From TrEMBL, chain A:
It comes from Kingdonia uniflora. One of its GO terms (biological process) is membrane protein ectodomain proteolysis. This is Presenilin. Homodimer. Probable component of the gamma-secretase complex, a complex composed of a presenilin homodimer, nicastrin, APH1 and PEN2. Probable subunit of the gamma-secretase complex, an endoprotease complex that catalyzes the intramembrane cleavage of integral membrane proteins such as Notch receptors. Coiled coil: none annotated.
Automatic annotation (TrEMBL), chain B:
It is a multi-pass membrane protein. Keywords: Membrane, Notch signaling pathway, Transmembrane, Transmembrane helix. This is Gamma-secretase subunit APH1-like. It is found in: Membrane. One of its GO terms (cellular component) is membrane. The chain crosses the membrane at residues 6-25, 30-52, 64-85, 116-137, 157-179, 191-209, 215-236. One of its GO terms (biological process) is protein processing. Belongs to the APH-1 family. Its main location: membrane. It comes from Kingdonia uniflora.
Length: 421, 247
């Protein structure tokens, strides 16, 4: 008896874009946690004081009182945010003056520095820790090749998408690991202040990121920044028959824009050059999140299929909006793009949680993914530039505090008595 | 005791869930999102309970009756959350059906609904295993092991992994039974799930007494097998009913 082919159900395809962005974020966080666990047990002594832009105001020592640490951490993060703001404004200026080539070259240069020096340093520590039998010439050649391919992946858009994605995740991981080496209070204060700054920079009328987004929209150009692009999802139905598909470009502001460009040039004179290569990395990767939505087309049915999570209200609103005529893109199928800065700060939070215990890691991971989901839903609802950091970071910090002070005691108490529910 | 042992404990507690995840859930992105949501929900309920009980902990090791109250309150809270989860799922089902109608695709099949219930249950189970077993396994990756006084014959990590395996199974499949019960309106299924949960949690109370784990763990597995059988029977019945009544 011939079996009738089962018609595909809708839950086969809904939510695929979200999963395609959650996977690399999770991978990056996982790699950072592994790095933190391995490298912090190998060198079990307390981290040496880092001389970087983030600790220029105050260097935490274990003997300070809590209030001192708190004040010092706030001071550090304020300095950091000021530097970031200045740099972002410089970036907006450069973008306005159409110095795109300069920005792209600087992007490549900064990827080279991150992959080459930071990657090399971590490679050396791993080799020392695991006593891998490799000589320095082989190591140098391998490292050089690795770095060059990474720079090309960032520069050229014709590279295989998996390689580009892989390299972006590696760059995010390396920068995030560097950030976790900052003292504890500074890291937490930095995360919270960056989340608040992100909120301000994207939503306030004078914010640099808002200006950047508006500039890019009005010129219909892509911002040259390190941005992770998920593989686009293809829908194999009525979309093929649609002739004039009007595409809209939706923007979702990430962290500060501008990859490591201005930051590296700024941090060099300020930070101390005699410490290890860490000083050159007083930067933050801060690309913008662009959500390229082919989805919000004029016709209702295709839009429904393409944006399954958008509420019905949002769809009707999208049709009336004159936004639809702007930004007529071509062929670039909708794929969610997430800025690398978001990757980095999520991973920093989880890496810091890993330095305490694994329970906080799991709790913070779930909080961050929940925040990311909420941000994507808000984006679908409001359809304008939204910052990706605040919700996740604030949820993550909240869950960290709750887990560390409440959950751990409870679970350990129950578990040690073999009492589970 | 070394990375191999640590990995072994992890796989012991989470092996079947991993298999389920790879074979059933990872094919449909929506189910992955369901697993993540229900894991988060379970974590939130656990944090709420720990917030509530923080003032009373740590409990003295000799008395055992506060643990009874602890268990009853925690299980009651989690079952209440399950009902909330069901309500949220109903609303989601309506949205999905409306969306399917507009997109001219078939509505949710019975197997889809069961898969969503399974994903929800798996999320609960994985959350349990992660927070009660995995997060305490960090020392197991090192060079030594640990024994608890009350169960001195088996390493603590092994015992907690075995108990977690039982609970993961119970959580996963009782969600399927529960959703079925709420959907069909059967009183027995609706009552079955909270009762099983409470009984299983109470059974672990036996572990508090010295040498209790020799009795407690087999009892727990008896309950697990009971849940599995009941779930299998319910699903089989639903599917054959559905088959004989083509819509």
């Amino acid at each position: 008896m011939a079996k009738k082919p089962k018609p595909t159900s809708i839950i086969d395809s809904i939510g695929e874009e979200i999963v395609r962005i959650i996977t690399p974020v999770s991978t990056c966080m996982f790699l950072v946690v592994i790095l933190v666990t391995i490298l912090n047990t190998n060198s079990s002594d307390s981290p040496s004081s880092l001389n970087t832009i983030a600790t220029v105001a105050y260097n935490e020592t274990p003997s300070d009182s809590t209030w001192d640490k708190f004040k010092g951490a706030l001071l550090n993060s304020l300095v950091f945010v000021v530097v970031v703001t200045v740099t972002t404004f410089i970036l907006v200026l450069l973008f306005y003056l159409r110095c795109t080539k300069f920005l792209k070259i600087y992007m490549g240069f900064s990827s080279f520095v991150v992959l080459g020096f930071m990657g090399g340093e971590i490679g050396v520590v791993l080799i020392k820790g695991f006593s891998v039998p490799i000589d320095c010439f082989t190591f140098l050649v391998v490292l050089f090749n690795f770095t060059v391919v990474g720079v090309m992946a960032v520069f050229m858009s014709k590279m295989a998408i998996l390689i580009t994605q892989g390299y972006l995740v590696v760059i995010g991981m390396l920068v995030a690991y560097w950030f976790t080496m900052l003292p504890e209070w500074t890291t937490w204060a930095l995360l919270v202040t960056m989340a608040l700054y992100d909120l301000a920079a994207v939503l306030l009328p004078g914010g640099p990121l808002k200006l950047l987004v508006e500039l890019a929209i009005s010129r219909d150009e892509e911002i040259p920044a390190l941005v992770y692009e998920a593989r686009p999802v293809s829908y194999d139905d009525e979309l093929g028959g649609r002739g004039g598909v009007v595409e809209r470009r939706m923007w979702k502001g990430g962290s500060r824009v501008g990859s490591d460009i201005g930051e590296i040039s700024n941090s060099n004179p300020i930070s101390n050059l005699e410490s290890d290569s860490n000083s050159t990395l007083g930067e933050m990767l801060a690309p913008l999140v662009q959500v390229n939505e082919t989805r919000l087309v004029v016709s209702e049915e295709t839009s429904e299929l393409s944006v399954p999570l958008i509420d019905q209200r949002a769809n009707t609103r999208g049709q009336e909006d004159d936004f639809a005529v702007e930004g007529i893109g071509l062929g670039s199928s909708g794929a969610i793009k997430l800025g690398l800065g978001d990757f980095i700060f999520y991973s920093v939070l989880v890496g810091r949680a890993a330095m305490y215990d694994f329970m906080t890691v799991y709790a913070c991971y779930l909080a961050i993914i929940a925040g990311l989901g909420i941000t994507l839903l808000l984006l679908a609802l409001y359809q304008k530039a939204l910052p990706a950091l605040p919700v996740s970071i604030l949820l993550g910090v909240l869950f960290y505090v709750l887990t560390r002070f409440f959950l751990e005691v409870f679970v350990v108490q129950c578990s040690l008595n073999l009492l589970m529910f | 005791m070394t990375v191999a042992a640590g990995l072994g404990y992890v796989l012991l507690a989470l092996g079947p869930s991993l298999t389920l995840f790879i074979s059933v859930i990872s094919r449909k992105p929506f189910l992955i999102l369901t697993v993540l949501t229900s894991t988060l929900l379970w974590l939130v309920s656990l944090i709420a309970m720990s917030g509530l009980w923080r003032a009373f902990l740590p409990l003295k090791p000799t008395v055992w009756w506060p643990y009874v109250i602890l268990i009853i309150t925690s299980v009651a809270f989690q079952e209440a959350l399950r009902i909330l989860f069901w309500k949220g799922y109903k609303r989601l089902e309506n949205i999905l059906d409306a969306f399917a109608d507009r997109a001219r695709k078939p509505r949710l099949f019975l197997t889809d609904k069961m898969q969503i219930a399974l994903a929800g249950g798996l999320g609960h189970g994985v959350a349990h295993a992660v927070f009660f077993c995995l997060s305490l396994l960090t020392p197991a990756f090192g060079p030594a092991t640990f024994y608890v006084d009350r169960c001195p014959r088996i390493p603590f990590f092994l015992v907690s992994a075995i108990i977690s395996l039982g609970f993961v199974t119970i959580h996963t499949f009782s969600m399927v039974i529960a959703f079925n019960g709420y959907a069909e309106g059967k009183k027995t299924d609706r009552v079955f799930v909270p009762v099983i949960h409470l009984v299983a949690a109470m059974v672990t109370l036996i572990n508090i007494f010295s040498g209790g784990c020799l009795v407690g763990i087999p009892l727990l597995y008896f309950i697990t097998i009971l849940t599995l059988l009941h779930c299998g029977r319910t699903v089989w019945r639903r599917l054959t009913e559905n088959q004989s009544r083509p819509e």
